[in-house]
Amino acid sequence: MAIDQNVEELLILGDSDLIIRQAQGEWETRDVKLIPYKNHVEDLSKRFKSIEFRYIPRCHNELADALATLDSMLPYPGNAHIDPLEIQIRERHGYCNTIEVAPNTQPWYHDIKKFLKTKEYPEQASGDQERTIRRHASGFFFSGDVLCKRTPDLNLLRCVDAEEAGRIMHEVQSKATVQEAGVTKMEKEMCKR
Hints:
Number of strands: 5
Radius of gyration: 27 Å
Helix content: 40-55%
Strand order of the largest sheet: 3-4-5
Strand content: 5-15%
Number of helices: 6
Largest sheet: 3 strands, antiparallel
Shape: elongated
Structural class: alpha+beta
C-alpha cells in the first residue's frame, strides 16, 4: 500500500525484536520458511528512498494496537484514494479531558430509566434509537428507586448523575486524605519507638 501511495520514506514499527533485527540485517535469518519473506522485504525496501525498521516493546505498543484495531474494522478499498491518518499524541489520556456539562440536562441514563419505568421512548426517537434504548435497558434494573447496571461478571453498578458523582468523589478523596494523615501519624509514632 505504501508503494501504491508513492511513499518515499517509511518507518516500520514492530514488536518482534527478532523480526526487526533480521529486517535490519543485524541478525541472520535461518528459518527456511522465513527466508522468502526476508528476501521479499529486501526487494520492497529498494523501492523507497529511505526505510527504517524500529523495535517497539509490546508494553509501549498502544499506538500499534490502536492502529491494528482500526485496520481490522475498516475494509481496504482497493485502488481508492486513502487520506492520510493524522495522529496527535497528547500529554495525557483522553479520558482525563474534562467535559462541560450543560446546566439542567438529564443524566446519561435518563432515557433508559424512563423506558424501564413507563416503557416510553423519547418523543423524537427514531426506530434505531428505540432499539438501542431497549438493548441497553436489558442490562439495567431498579433497586428501590435507584437504577443499577449488571456487569458481565455479575457485579452491580449504581447509576449516578454528575452532581452525585461529584459528591461521591469528594467523599472518597476526603476519606483518602484522612487515611493518609492517619498512616503518617502512625509512621511518626513507630519511628519514635
